[in-house]
Amino acid sequence: MRACVAAGSLPAAAGPRRRVTVAAGWGGFHLPRVGAAAASKLTPGKLFVFGLGYTGLGAASFFQQRGWEVAGTVRSEDKVDRLAQRGISAFHFDPTDFDNLGGKALDCLRHATHVLSTVPPDADNDIDPVIMAHAQQLSEHADLFKWVGYISSTSVYGDWEGEWVDETSELRAAGGKGWSRVMAEHEWLALHDNFGLPVHVFRCGGIYGPRRSALDSVQRGGGGSANAARRAQQRYTARCHVYDICQTLEASMRHPRPGAAYNIADDDPADRATVMAFAAELLERRAAGLPLQPAVPGDGPGGWAVPVSSMSAAASGASSSSYDSGDEGGLLSAALRPRDRGASSGRMRRSDARQAAAAAAAVREALAEKRVSNALIKKELGVQLQFPTYREGLSAIAAGDMRPFS
């Protein structure tokens, strides 16, 4: 069990973080106050995205629609040509191999004005693949980048027994993906401390959006599982629409504060069962040709008027399907399955023991309870959530809203 981490501090095992004064040749980081004209202007630039997956592609589309040049990395070669047809220069980069970019890809990175990484850390080794491969290039060109963003997770806060947390709260993740995220945050912030890289950390709740939401989970259906049982125990779930992530990134670019961390979560950390029931009701209303409007306050689950329907049973069963970035159903299932210890030795192989430890950590992390405050992005960055709760978000998706992808 690893020790908890206070916000802004580095675990002793990773060594102390030191703030190094940036030499005059780096240009310094004297920033205008939020609200000043110089900070509010955002001229379209060149964005390089490490990880053009769901969130990365959403950001790429969002900024491309606003006149930006966009390039980035993908894990599969076949995606390169498809993105090229959309005007996005994509380059193969497999985080599991710790490959280095070369040639034209490095040129795009070096000439970028803004850099975003959505690549998750290697949970087995507590290593960030992007930093492992390209810390040198990022640090050498730190003074040329106007802004760098790292997509992290609210899992870094660990278990707060349902209490509210903000960016100043202790990071209590003690294992699993939450701990890996803590370590990755500190690796990125170390590049800010030591080389002046203008890093900003964004701790996102469960990410959903078009083609990746509770609506899809309900439509897929499915029976109960260990993952469904685990989710049913949770009172609160932080979540955010991918479009609101994109507009928060844009707001941060307008008002940069290197070294800062921000929570991105909506206003209602409702439990999963409530969300799934609402999604089921939306699908019923759409099938019946009724208006798709956010429910009004009532006596339904979570205090909202969500009628019980024949679809609700399907929603309950479908809760085993993941629609956010924090799903760990596979690891949880592995932890609860009986293991074949082997007839000859009666001992676990080393790989089995490692998997068991990871699965146990995932179980502890999955049951962590907290409510995540989004007050800072509203107050400091002026963000107005387009989808302040799952109700607005799911209603828009059900009505065909494809933002930020189109």
From TrEMBL:
Residues 53-216 form the NAD-dependent epimerase/dehydratase domain. Pfam families: Epimerase. The keyword Transferase does not apply. Residues 316-352 are annotated as: Disordered. Keywords: NAD. SUPFAM superfamilies: NAD(P)-binding Rossmann-fold domains (SSF51735). It comes from the Eukaryota. Belongs to the NAD(P)-dependent epimerase/dehydratase family. PANTHER family: EPIMERASE-RELATED. This is NAD(P)-dependent oxidoreductase.
